[in-house]
Structure formats: structure tokens, C-alpha cells
Amino acid sequence: MVNEVRKAAPDVFITFSYPPDTIAVTEQARLQSFNPKLMYTGVGTAFALFKQRFADNADGVLSLGGVTADSAAVQDYIARHREVVGQEPDRWASLVTYAGLQVLQQAIEQAGTLDRAQVSARIATAPPSWSFPSPSGRRPPRVDHAARPDALCARPREARRCAIVCAMFEPLVPAHAIAADSAVPFSPVYGDVYHAAAGAFAQAEHVFIAGNGLPERWRGRADFTVLETGFGLGLNFLALWRAWRADPARSERLHVVSVEAHPFTRDELASWLRDLVPGELRVQADALLAAWPPLLPGLHSLSFEQGRMRLTLAFGKAAAIVPRLSLAADAYFLDGFAPARNPEMWSDALIAALAEHAAPGATAATWASAGQVRRALAAVGFAVRKRPGFAGKRDMTVAEHPVGGACGRRVLAQRRTPGRALVVGAGVAGAGVAHALAARGWAVDVVAPDDAAHAGHAAAALTPTIDPGDSVRARLARAGAGLAHGTWRPVIAPTLADAGETAVAWRLGTVQVAPRRQLRSDEAYARWREGLSALGFPADWLRLIDAADAAELAGQPVGRGGAWLPAGLLVRPGRLQRWLLEAPGVRRVRARVARLAAGDAGWTAYDEAGRACAGGEVLVLACAGGTADLARASDIAWPLGDALQAVAGQITYLPEDLVAGLPRCVVAGDGYVLPALDGRGVAGSTYDHATQPGMPAPASAEGHARNLEHLRALLPQAAWPAHADWRGWAGWRAVLPGRLPAIGALPGAAGVFVATAYASRGLSHCALAGALIASHLSGTPAPIEADLQAAIGPGRAAGA
């Protein structure tokens, strides 16, 4: 998009987008040296994340705002917001919302009632002189509805041409191929073949494998990473897999990141691979098909060869997704359709973005020999030369980047040789990180007084968040669910009748009932459905359903329609926790950590008696609501202030006489209800902000009553008789404002990571946190995009 705008040479460039696209557009403008006289981006520019990402490069970018930026009252509000919440407010809606709530508060007080009509009338007739004292007794900021944007300092001169772009979510469009005259797969969209007529595997070996100096270059390496543009039918990947398996001196692990704007459906991919793959690669092709993800935008991590071969599929347009990758590429397979057919895959901007990820000494190879391609590679630091092409083609292009790109060098600077890691906390957060580190060769000490974090927690559900706006929370939950399915694959059963004592989870699916709290009116419900439909998610991942469909899927009448998510999991949290902690390389240490101390050999944990009980070169704090207190007790700088809160919650067990009314899948909406396990069901769950931390979380009668309200709304026609003595389970959640977790490296504390604030999404974040921290320590490709990493990074409040 930016490339096309730049060609138009506008004086004014205006984009309207939310933070991920605002960042992507600005990054592309920077990479392409696109610097119009006036650049206006909104609304993502109003968030602290934008300034953190671009630092001084953000200066001069205009945006919208709802306040007068230099107002003393506004500065006072920002300081108080930072003090109370622990992070910077945005400069868009935070202050306006706060002032609006104060208007509502005073209107209610003056009306003396909660009656909506009377409160509305009071607001409509309020004099301009209303004042709104804040709870602290200070006067809040005054909202200036005619305020100028924060960065608008001067009127631009000689602005003649203007480009206005709305950056919106783009659904994936699956690929479709037909057989050309030579039986080679042919794309009708791009008018080009997927590989040379002389053979896909021979082409891959000549151009991409030999062209990158393989297998010699990966020998003796712990990790080797390949970045490919254009996954297509996966034939280059399968050829690379074969070459890696055949080399006794191969790297310990091979990582492949492949970008694809138009992935094939599993069925069409299978039909082509049946004809194209030779017998010796049939096992690998079948493994690829078995792991093939639903066609959802973003990153999908697939694991093969007991975790030693990892494929990250980056589904989406290369120009948008490549700048948001985090990796250090040792080799590039540049394999888009011909430059004349698909110029976006060979643009100067994309080549520059790819080069940012180069490790020092990275090589690149492509069958293309066009002068524009060679010049683009040379312009970003590659030393370029020609080599004889494949199957009679005169030339192909190979290149080497001696210095490496900024992102690639940064990723490699984080790399550590696996040693001993110390994880504090043995719930699903700590267990998930320990499991991931052990799988990458770390010896892990997991320290906690007991394994009681999920004792008595009979069952839970892993269901991705769905949001018509495809928010950060929704994208994060989607990524986490995909990683959980891949990581837990050995212990996921398809039905409750399967693998009784060994299964940790069951893939029963989720009926996601449209939530009534947010969608009270029929109009709001219709908009919600239209928004989800517009995302274009595939039916094998999400299907919109009405109440009748929901009842058929659940086996019980359901209160409302919504969406069917076939990948929803029913999970035993305690059993999952034990399975993760039983991984080879994980050592369980039973102690309560009172403080941590850094030394020459890393970190040491001390118990309440002052005895050293465990240690490691790197430290992971995964102790839920106690994370901040332990960090402070250990003189570890904690960037999130007092924002991390412990919030109680409970579930209700439904006894055997009610099992007949339970669904056969997960049913979620305002609360949830789970199928019966061991003769009882589960309804949940509550958020109890009144119970003070420091005491056992109680399972109260009031909490049971709220859970039963959820149950009756979800399954209104079942008989739910009153019981005098409900049973249940209660525990603590660690929660940050916005309900996003804190996962990643602590700024200013070398070798210290956190995995906390999972709120009610512990299962969704479990595998994701482990994969993200493990990738950071190993200098290997991250499982989620850079903007998602920034959104959940523990340094986000500190501007790190």
C-alpha cells in the first residue's frame, strides 16, 4: 500500500487505522524513506506503543487527540493515571472517557436515581459550569472539544496532493491452482507456475539449497534459520527437510519461517502433494498435512522431528507481516511469482524489510535474475552475484549480507547457550515456561511450595476470544490456542471416551453464545454477527450459528445463537500442570521463595529460612499476583507499579443429578458451562474484586448464585433445581488493566523474564509464554508478531 502511495508522490498522506496497522504503515514509510510534507496517522499514534516503537522517528507525525496537550490539567491527569494504573494513558480516549464518567457520576448524584431517562435529562440540561472533583480531591482535566491534535504545530506549506488510506483487516484469500499444460501447478490469479517444469525438488536443490551453501553452512550449528517468501505448496520446505535429515552433521535444530499471502486449504494442498511428492518424502508430507493450521492471518508454529524442526507459517501479505517478524535469518529463499506477475513480492520496500532480519553472514538465493531484484538486494547491504540458473535458465541470483540487519543482530544478541533456568511458580504459567525451556535443552528448576495452584480445579475450557474488531486480545488468544494445540497434541483426545487417564484435554468444540451484557439489543447482536462474518475466518475454525444450530451442537437448548469454534478444548488444569512439569529436564523444588539474589553464576532463590534452594543463569517470575512483591523484595526493578492485582474467582460444581442437563461441548458466553467429567459438571466463573488478597479465595454462596445465573442464561430450558449446599473451587487470578498478560524480558534486569497476569486466560497464554521466552533465549523465530510482543511486554508501561 505504501509503495503505491509513494509512487503517487503526494504532499499529504493520511491513514486511519488501529495500532497494528498504524505501526505497519509507519514502519513501511520509514523503510521506503517516504517522507511527505504532512503525514497524519490515527488512531494508533495516540498510544504510548507508537512512541516506544519509533522513538525520535515519531516526531513530526500528526495524529488526532481529544485534549489540549499542553494543558496543566492534562499533564496532571497523565501523572495520576501513570501512578494509579502503572502505565501511560493514550492521548485519544482515556481522558475523554474519564471526564465522561465524571459527568455521569455527577448527573446520577444530582438526579438522585439510576433511572436512565432522568439521568439523561440531567446531563442534557447541565450548565457549562459543572465541575467534577476526582476521588483524590484534585480537579480533573478539562476536556477541550475543539482541541487540536497533539502533534499539529504548524500549517504545512505548499501541500497540493493528498493520499487518504483506510488500513483495515484483510481476510485471507486461499490459493487455488490448476494444472498447466506440463501438469505443473499454475496460479490463475498471478498467471504463473508454482515451479519449473523440470521439477520442483530439483529446482529447490539447485536454486535454494545449493544457492545458500547448504548443507555445509548449517553444520556444527545449534540453530539454523531460513526465511522464505512464498510457501506455495511447501515443496521447497519438504526438499529442505529431506536435505537436513540426510546430513549426519546437520544443525541440532532447523527453523523455517515462510510467508504466504494465499495459503492453500488442507484439502487442496493434500490433492497436489499426492501427485508431486516422491515416496521417500511421503511421511514428511503427511506430517505437514496433519499439522496444517486453519487459514487464519498471523503466525502459526508447527513442530516436527520431536521439536528439532520448526516451521512458522506467516499468513498474510508480505509487506504487512515481514516488518513484524522477530528472527535472525541465516538463509533466504526468495521464491515469489515472477516480478512481472507479482511485483509486490520483489519491491524495494519488501527487500529492505527482509534485510532487517538478516544475521551477519546471511545468504540469499532466488531463481530470479532481473536487474531490479539484484539492485534492490545490493541497496540494502547484500553482496550480489550471478550463478548459472536451473534447467537451462542462464542466470540465477545469490547474495550475502556480511553485516546483518538491525533486527537480526538484536535477536542474536539475546541468544544464550542452554544452561540452568530458575522458574518461580508451578502453576500453568510456570509449568508452561519450564516445559518449553526444557524442550530446548535447558535444565529447569521450578520452585513453589506445592502443586496446589489447581488442586480441586476439576475442569476448565480453552476457547479463543472472538471480536469483530479483531483486537489485540483476540489475536493473542488465537495465537495462544494454536500453540496450545500444537504443544499439547500428544495428550489431546478427540472425545471424552478416548484416552481416559492419559488425556489432559478433549477437543469437543465450543458454542460461543453471543454475550448479552455487550449485545443487549437485536441491532447490536446483528452488528456483532456482521463484524465476525466480515473477518472471513474459515468455517473449520469459526462458523456463525443460530439458536437451533447451537442446540444441535450442544445437545441441549441454548439461550441464543452465536458462533461455533470446533477447536474449543475441555481441559483438566491439574493434569495439564503435572504433565508439563514431568517433562525431561524439569526438576521440581518444593519451597516458598522469600527473595532472589543475583551473583556471578546467575540467580539464587532463598526460602523463608534464608536457605538457598535453587538457582539458574536465567530467572523467570511466574508466581501470579505475587510476582511484583517478589521482584521488589529481590531489588529487581518492577515497571508495572501497583497495576498487578490479585482477583478472586470461583467455579460451581454441578452434582450428578444435574448431569443430564449438561451440554456435550463447551458452552460459553456470559460465563460458561462444561460437559460432565467424572460424573459432575462445571459452571463458571466469577470475578470477585471485594475479597482482599492474602487470604484463601473463598467459594461463597453469592459466587455460586452468580454462576447459576450464567448457567440459566446459557441453558435456559434445563431444570436447575435449588440445592442447599453447592460445592465448588475458588482461586486467585493475576490481572492487569486491559486484561493483557505480562510476558517477556524485564527491562533493565539482564536475564530476568516474567510470565504473569494471565487473568482468566491462563490456558490460552500457557504455551504461548513458554514459546516466546524460549525463542528469546535461543535467538530463534518468535511465535507471535512484534506488535503483539510489545502489547504484552512487561516494559510497556516503562516505555522500554
Can you describe what's shown?
Helix 2 packs parallel to helix 3 and helix 9 (266-276) packs antiparallel against helix 10 (282-291). This protein has an 8-stranded mixed sheet with strand order 9-10-8-7-11-12-14-13, with helices on both faces. It has an 8-stranded mixed sheet with strand order 21-22-20-30-31-32-29-33, with helices on both faces. Helices cover 30% and strands 23% of the residues. It has 23 helices and 35 strands. It starts with a helix and ends in an 8-residue tail after the last helix. The chain is α/β, with parallel strands linked by helices. It has 4 domains: 2-64 and 149-166; 178-412, 3-Layer(aba) Sandwich (Rossmann fold); 414-455 and 575-644 and 738-792, 3-Layer(bba) Sandwich (FAD/NAD(P)-binding domain), CATH 3.50.50.60; 510-566 and 649-730, 2-Layer Sandwich (D-Amino Acid Oxidase, Chain A, domain 2), CATH 3.30.9. The relative contact order is 0.10. Strand 5 and strand 6 (192-193) form a beta hairpin. It comes from Verticiella sediminum. In the C-terminal section; belongs to the DAO family. In the N-terminal section; belongs to the methyltransferase superfamily. tRNA (mnm(5)s(2)U34)-methyltransferase family. It holds the Pfam family Methyltransf_30.
Layout: helices, strands, pairs:
Elements: H1 2-8, E1 12-17, H2 19-31, E2 38-43, H3 48-54, H4 72-85, H5 94-111, H6 116-124, E3 162-166, E4 178-179, E5 185-187, E6 192-193, H7 200-209, E7 223-229, H8 235-246, E8 253-260, H9 266-276, H10 282-291, E9 298-304, E10 309-315, H11 318-321, E11 329-334, H12 348-355, E12 358-366, H13 371-379, E13 383-388, E14 395-401, H14 406-413, E15 420-424, H15 428-439, E16 443-448, E17 460-462, H16 472-487, E18 492-493, E19 505-507, E20 510-513, H17 522-534, E21 543-545, H18 547-554, E22 562-565, E23 569-571, H19 573-581, E24 586-590, E25 593-599, E26 602-607, E27 612-616, E28 618-621, H20 627-633, E29 645-654, E30 666-669, E31 671-677, E32 680-684, H21 701-714, E33 727-735, E34 742-745, E35 752-756, H22 762-778, H23 786-792
Parallel strand pairs: 1-2, 1-3, 7-8, 7-11, 8-10, 11-12, 15-16, 15-28, 16-24, 18-19, 20-30, 28-35
Antiparallel strand pairs: 4-5, 5-6, 9-10, 12-14, 13-14, 17-23, 19-23, 20-22, 21-22, 25-26, 26-27, 29-32, 29-33, 30-31, 31-32, 34-35
Helix pairs in contact: 2-3, 5-6, 7-8, 9-10, 12-13, 15-19, 15-22, 16-22
